[in-house]
Amino acid sequence: MSGPHEAQQPDQARQPEPQGADAPPVLARRDGRVGHLVLNRPRAINALTMEMVGLITEQLQEWEADPQVGTIVLTGAGERGLCAGGDIVALWKDAKAGGREAQDFWSAEYRLNAMIDELTTPYVAVMDGIVLGGGIGLSAHGRIRVVTERSRIGMPETGIGFIPDVGGTYLLSRAPGETGTHLALTAGQVGAGDAIALGLADRFVPSERLPRLLQALAETPAEEAVDALAEEPPPAPLLPERSWIDAAYAGDDAEEIVRRLRETGTEAADEAAETILTRSPTSVAVTLRALRSAAGMSLREALAQEARLAYHCHASADFVEGVRAQVVDKDRDPRWSPASLAEVTASQVEAYFAPIGEHELTFPDDPHTSTEA
């Protein structure tokens, strides 16, 4: 699990928000033609809870039906980022207790991800600072995804015994060449240039211009407002590495990928191989297969597949152990089972894709009027 983004951020980058113990975890306000959603758990880098998913869903339904709302914009309170993902400790506690709250959360969250993708009202996500896991689900499916020089974007799931979800397999399977596979298996993070190059974001706006962007969105159509303040993004460091990335990450065998990385002969490839070997071997193997499957799926289909994977991950020893090691005890020494890629069998991987009966993810005919199956 990646550490917090420690860079100090100017006070004017985000408008002051209520952050006390009694403040709601999601703020919603109207400003001219824009409906503005603010994730409001800054001490937790706005980590998502079931309550937050419900509040966002209800507000999006209301604004989608309101002809006076010309744009919906999403930002995060505090100085560290838009959203660090789901409240992983709560999900870990549920897994240890053998509960089903996590599956209820994921089902509601994944339906919200599909809703964001299918909105007719322009949706602008300001992906400033840390945007991980569930934060990508709230932003990268939007129509206009804005990054800044402070953006750190990634899917850290293989490091905690999980899989890239919230449509992550869908998004990363469509990145140029095998760059998405590289990001998924290593659980890496990228900055603004790579986020745009990989298809996780669209436009680069310097952080000092964010207050002006929010004001412009209240007064002018979304595309026009963003275009007026965006500039050329910084370089994308992954793109010059595609020659070895595409060659090494081809195919469906994670062990073979690590072998090719080691044979590439570059420091970056060696580091990637060593990083993958620290991740949950089962998660790496399952993630690789999920990426290949998702390449031919719609977003809804990929989310339904991810719901199955999440269900089985939640019941696995690696998820409990991974969160313990990375987030709870923070000893950074997970004891994976199986312990190596060589020990992960095809039947073990196949089991993660097995149907989950009543827990299968379904979607309403109109995602903007109901979140119930």
Automatic annotation (TrEMBL):
SUPFAM superfamilies: ClpP/crotonase. It catalyses: 3-hydroxy-2-methylpropanoyl-CoA + H2O = 3-hydroxy-2-methylpropanoate + CoA + H(+). Its EC number is 3.1.2.4. Residues 34-353 form the Enoyl-CoA hydratase/isomerase domain. Keywords: Hydrolase, Lyase. Transmembrane segments: none annotated. Signal peptide: none annotated. The keyword Transferase does not apply. GO terms for biological process: L-valine catabolic process. Residues 1-27 are annotated as: Disordered. One of its GO terms (molecular function) is lyase activity. The keyword Cell cycle does not apply. InterPro entries: ClpP/crotonase-like_dom_sf (IPR029045), ECH_dom (IPR045004), HIBYL-CoA-H (IPR032259). GO terms for cellular component: cytosol. PANTHER family: 3-HYDROXYISOBUTYRYL-COA HYDROLASE, MITOCHONDRIAL, 3-HYDROXYISOBUTYRYL-COA HYDROLASE-RELATED. NCBIfam families: PRK05617.1. This is 3-hydroxyisobutyryl-CoA hydrolase.
